[in-house]
Specification:
Elements (H helix, E strand, L loop, with lengths): L10 H8 L3 H8 L7 H14 L5 H8 L4 E6 L4 H18 L2 E6 L8 H5 L3 E7 L6 H10 L3 E4 L9 E4 L2 H14 L5 E5 L5 H16 L9 E3 L4 H12 L7 E4 L2 H13 L9 E3 L6 H4 L6 E3 L2 H13 L9 E3 L3 E3 L10
Parallel strand pairs: 1-2, 1-3, 3-4, 4-5, 5-11, 6-7, 6-8, 8-9
Antiparallel strand pairs: 10-12
Length: 337
Amino acid sequence: MDTHARRPATIVDVARAAGVSFKTVSRVLNGEPNVREPTRQLVLQAVKTLGYRANPYARSLRAAQSRIIAVYFSNPSRNYTSEIQIGVLQRCNAEGFNAIFEQASAGPEGLVSLRGEPNLAGVILVAPLTEDPAFLRRLSEAGVPFVRLAPVDAAGETGHVSMDDEAAAAEMTDYLISLGHSRIGFIAGPDDHPQARLREAGYRAALARNGLEPEAALMAQGSFHFDSGLRAAETLLALSNPPTAIFASNDDMAAAVLAVAYRKGLRIPQDLSVAGFDDTPLASVVVPSLTTIYQPIREMAAQAAGMLFGKADPDAPASSVLPHRLVARESTAAPKR
């Protein structure tokens, strides 16, 4: 099914159709001067053709000067965080808002935007902050609208956008088993990260479903960043009976496995299959390209921002679960016989 077929047109769609910038479209719609008449007519025709309707809540927020969305994150993967930033910025640009991004390692009291930003329209909390009671309590006390991105606990009245990490990890493990692998190493994410726990649960469930017993020796601890993947891969590949495939629970750590395998003279995928998770841009630029789980990070981030814009709309969705998919590339194959 075409997921974009019924999507309402945005200001970016109008800009593309008219061949102008979204700022030009905004000037036309707001009746501002200094727009050439032929350009104005092109924009108005695109508005009519696409059936574009301005977001009334976004306008009310602009009128109240609440034009800033803050995104709080603590995920160590720069590739993952960059995808979130792109998704939020694209949606904010389309709606005439600004976005600020804050590393939240010092806790909620250290956030500049919560202390001194009077025009804050809302907040996007990125996992694992989505489960942090201090952040949830601080935002509730401040009366700031917020949406949680990729929470595990979806209970409560706050909006949230997520995907099924456990099912996705199980699908990748099933895929490796279908290729003929029975010794599948796994590099977990940080213990305090809810998605990391779900991905490990999916790996274990798929092994059990296929009659394979999880081995402690085949499971290594990582932290969602490249260096932790290096250490974990060294541990797994130093085993007397090493795995024939390694599934890392994000792309950064999977790329590290490729680096360690290269240093050890292992060919990918002939000697070792490697799989990742997230399908960040890194997955398609490393050599060989990574088999991975596509997580719609940009779409999730954009939708989280859109939920904040629609807080005044009683029909706005309170939650959304977006689909994942397995992307098979060059880094996986059947094990050597």
